[in-house]
Amino acid sequence: MDWSFYAQLLLNGLVMGVIYALVAMGLSLIFGVLEIVNFAHGEFYMLASMLAYFLTAQWGFDYWTTILVVTVVGVAVGYVLFEGLRLALRGEAFERSILLTMGLSMVLQNGAVFLFTTNSHLLESKLSYQNVVLGDDFRMPVARLYALGLGFAAFAVLYLILHRTRIGKAMRGVAQNRAAADMVGIDARAVSRLAVAIGIGLTGLAGAALAPVYAVHPLMGFSFVFKAFAIIIIGGLGNISGAAIAAVMLGIIESFAGGLLPLALTDAVAFISMIAVLLLRPQGLFGRGVRV
Amino acid sequence: MADPILTCENLSVGYTDEPVVVDFSIEIPAGSITTIIGPNGAGKSTLLRALYGQNRYFGGKIHFAGRTIERLSPKERLKLGIGFVPQGRCNFPLMTVRENLELGAYTLRGAASERAIERVLARFPLLAAKLNVLAGNLSGGEQQILETAMVLEAGPKLLLLDEPSLGLSPGNQDQIFEMIAHLRDGGLTVLVVEQNAHGALQISDTGIVMELGRLFMVGPAAEVASDPRIKVAYLGGQ
Questions:
Q1: Given a cut of 60, is residue A292 above it in pLDDT?
Q2: Best CA proximity match to B152, nearest among B82, B52, B75, B77
Q3: Domain with CATH 3.40.50.300 in chain B
Q4: Are B208 and B32 in contact, with CB atoms under 8 Å apart?
């Protein structure tokens, strides 16, 4: 094993980590403004991948158009999801939101199985066989590099929205204290709706960016939401930047674990990390302790 | 007495099926401090929330500065000139004081929001000294002042304060009452709900006593404070 093996593991880990980050940031945004865990989040990621597959393979959309269309559809679905959840919950019970989003997850997942079967689809496009070659045998598939770039760009944009724009600050405000948001005249409903739309949009982007990298199948989203939740906890609940960093770290650790340890341990890494973090630093790696 | 800035006529408000505050009528003169006292569950906080449009409206009228407002949303009322600082800590704890003040000016745009921030910083120099501190790390009294400053940025004519001295040390409580008196001297109308009846009535013009969701007594603050029934019930007198 030479350096290129490790470099390959690092690159794969980074790509996966960035995808985790997109999904986890979306989940964290939604958790922040609605105070519910969206257990159907992984299914939106799966559906986005599926949509990307059909757009490219069946209808011949190019890479960038596919990314754009899937992200925009994700944002639109987020709007509908918000209004749907609002009507279904009417400000009630946390338990109900768990059942509701889990039920939605099952319906979406099994609906996808029914329509598309459990076969994996491999998205082949012009990008599939393009590589950037470094040295003798270190190959970087272009689709992965694009996924990486998109992930970082999306994170940068989200960070700027949340910290530099009026509406973004209002989103953080609603997530931190809804009563205070009311006090200063923030329309919590409009702001939350936009946050959920962005959250699902990010997940759509993640699904579309990853479709050309890994096989697409209806069960791909199921374990994702639990992993994304572990990432949010590792990063510090409510800290979106923390979740992004934790996601990238986890992607890299998983990739190395997959390369060096028995394969079965790969998925355990996320949850072992979560348990370790909860034992050693209950507020999360980047959680800020504040006297309230 | 000055013209009333706020009038409630037979107001009934609550949360679910039954109104908590029933048939409540009151006039609040402009430029005065009015304190509402009463036992737990009398409906004091419910009344304040209703004036800001945060709970369920059953009937009656609310007039504010010549308009009928009982159907307006909190945001619309804030824009008309009613500010409400709820009970307990009500700020954005993981944001700095500066960011909190920026959100305080949320209903304003551009230069107006900058001016509003500068105005409250000039008024509360202790906030100016802590602009980069997270709000959650301020002391209780400082947080109460920050919250009041955030609401003042919108330029309200009427300020509703729900238990501003709750959980504060005696020194901090005095600081808050002093701030309220200053605000009135600056032309603001203040309506306060207080557990610390003694401290609040001392700075007030009018006292209101609520019991079981109804108006029990209203009068000049000094008169309310010296009423034997009130003394025994709320002021620790014999």
A1: no
A2: B82
A3: 1-81+156-238
A4: no
Closest CA–CA distance from residue A165 to any residue of chain B (Å): 11
CA distance B222 to chain A (A): 31
Mean pLDDT value across residues B1-28: 87
**Helical H segments across chain A, by residue range:** 3-34, 41-53, 63-89, 94-116, 142-164, 166-176, 178-183, 188-210, 222-235, 240-260, 266-280
DSSP chain B: -PPEEEEEEEEEEESSSSEEEEEEEEEEETT-EEEEE--TTSSHHHHHHHHTT-SEEEEEEEEETTEE-TT--HHHHHHHTEEEE-SS--S-TTSBHHHHHHHHTTTS-HHHHHHHHHHHHHH-HHHHTTTTSBGGGS-HHHHHHHHHHHHHTT--SEEEEESTTTT--HHHHHHHHHHHHHHHHTT-EEEEE-S-HHHHHHH-SEEEEEETTEEEEEEEHHHHHH-HHHHHHHS---
Q: Which CATH code, of 3.30.230.10, 3.40.190.10, 3.90.180.10, 3.40.50.300, is assigned to B1-81+156-238?
A: 3.40.50.300
Give the closest-approach CA distance of B79 to chain A in angstroms: 8
Stated pTM of the model: 0.86
CA-based nearest residue in chain B for residue A287:
B94
**Strands B206-211, B33-37: parallel, antiparallel or unpaired by DSSP?**
parallel
Q: Which residues pair with B63 in a beta bridge?
A: B7, B68
Structure tokens at A3: 């350096």
pLDDT grade for A284, boundaries at 50, 70 and 90: confident
Residue type, B45: S
Rounded distance between C-alpha atoms, residue A270 and residue A250, angstroms: 7
What is this model's ipTM? 0.87
Residue A292 forms contact with B (CB below 8 Å): yes
Give the residue from B91, B137, B143 with the most A CB atoms within 10 Å of its CB, the best one to mutate: B91
Q: In what order do the strands lie in the sheet with B206-211?
A: B82-85, B158-162, B189-193, B33-37, B206-211, B214-220
